[in-house]
Amino acid sequence: MVLVLNGVLQDECPMDTHSLFVQHPVYRETATQFLSIPTKTVGAPGLLYVCQRELAAVAPHDKNVNIIGSDDATTCVIVVVRHSGSGAVALAHLDGNGTDEAVSTMVARVQELAFGYPEGRIELQLIGGFKDTQGYAEDLFSNIMQSFHKHPLEIDLTQACVGELNTILRGDINWPIIYGIGVNVKTGEIFPATFPDKGPDLQLRMARHFTGGHQ
Q1: Distance between CA atoms of 81 and 83, rounded to whole angstroms?
Q2: What's the pLDDT band for 10 if we cut at 50, 70, 90?
Q3: Can you give the pTM of this predicted structure?
Q4: What is the pLDDT of residue 1?
Q5: Mean pLDDT throughout 191-203?
Q6: How far apart, in whole angstroms, are the C-alpha atoms of residue 80 and residue 90?
Q7: What is the 3-state secondary structure (H, E, C) of the chain?
Q8: What are the UniProt keywords, alphabetically (predicted)?
């Protein structure tokens, strides 16, 4: 009983995106607002890029990082966990491998970075995934929600731009609207983004997709 939806602690969490949006229409409104933000192209200076099956965490006072982000998400979901008091933020690009481990690690790292700062809430934002014909993104959304719901801390879902809300019909085929996001670690601003430079050793980092490695 730890997920907080629209300010209310939940006994049970919605198991699919449609149920979430019907029961809590505020998430439809916030997703619509997010989709209206122009996509930014982010360069390499000050960027911490997160590949699929990776996660990273950073604090606002980090001198080397201004933006943390990820893109190339189709059926994947980009997960952002942020401490409202300190501004410490973690971001992961999840595809269904090691979801429970990633959730626990993200929350733990944000708590560590927030130690000694004013009290605040752990806020959760989910962006990505679309209404694919195989239902991969929907299954992933359900797994992520369950992982956060069984975490002992209260976690406040503030954004869910996922599933049908992140889907556009082109011809007879569904496509994602947003493929990537960036987070300004100094201000907490989150925005649609694309990243031409994805950081060092990209081929080595992506090799985990073929070896079964987790984050």
Answers
A1: 7
A2: confident
A3: 0.91
A4: 39
A5: 80
A6: 6
A7: CCEEECCEECCCCCCCHHHHHHHCCHHHHHHHHHHCCCCEECCCCCEEECCCCCEEEECCCCCCCCEEEECCCCCCEEEEEEECCCCCEEEEEECCCCHHHHHHHHHHHHHHHHCCCCCCCEEEEEEECCCCCCCHHHHHHHHHHHHHHCCCCCEEEEEEEEHHHHEEEECCEEEECCCCEEEECCCCCEEEEECCCCCCCHHHHHCHHHHCCCC
A8: Hydrolase
* Average pLDDT score over residue span 180-206: 84
pLDDT per residue over 129-186, tens digit each? 999 999 999 999 999 999 999 999 999 999 999 999 999 999 999 999 999 999 999 9
With both helix axes pointing from N to C terminus, report the angle between 99-114 and 136-149 in degrees, rounded to the nearest 10.
50
Residue 169's CB is within 10 A of a number of other CB atoms, namely: 9
Residue with tokens 């809590």, as numbered in its chain = 24
Which amino acid type is present at position 30? T
> How high is the pLDDT of residue 215?
42
> In this structure, what token pair is assigned to residue 69?
């982000």
- Please, are residues 77 and 17 in contact by the beta-carbon 8 Å criterion? no
